Amino acid sequence: MAAELDFSPPEIPEPTFMENVLRYGLFFGAIFQLICVLAIILPVSKPYKTDTENVESKSSEVAKKSKAVAPPMSKKPKKETKKKR
């Protein structure tokens, strides 16, 4: 009776190319998701620059651009009316 029992491991077929691609794709996808979550949890601090000249020149440029782009408040656009026949 003991001779009839077969305790050898079952034969497992070799994984195909697409199974390997799927396995490693899922593995790299999981790593990418972990990196993204860690980037949200642990933000990288930027070094603070003390260049006051750059800040002043940028703020004056922004003020000049905003004045040129914004239309005057006193003038309202006229509404166009359809001509009646």
From TrEMBL:
Q: What's in the keyword line of the UniProt record? A: Membrane, Transmembrane, Transmembrane helix
Q: In what way does this protein cross or attach to the membrane?
A: Single-pass membrane protein
Q: Output a single Gene Ontology CC term carried by this record.
A: membrane
Per the record, which residues fall in region Disordered? 51-85
Mark out the compositionally biased spans (Basic and acidic residues). 51-64
Q: Which residues cross the membrane?
A: 24-44
Q: Where is the composition biased (Basic residues)?
A: 75-85
Q: Where in the cell is it found?
A: Membrane
Task: Identify the domain of life.
Answer: Eukaryota
PANTHER family to which the protein is assigned, alphabetical: MANNOSIDASE, BETA A, LYSOSOMAL-LIKE, MANBAL PROTEIN, PROTEIN MANBAL
Into which family does the record put it?
Belongs to the UPF0239 family.
**What's the protein called, per UniProt?**
Mannosidase beta like
* Organism this protein belongs to: Sphenodon punctatus
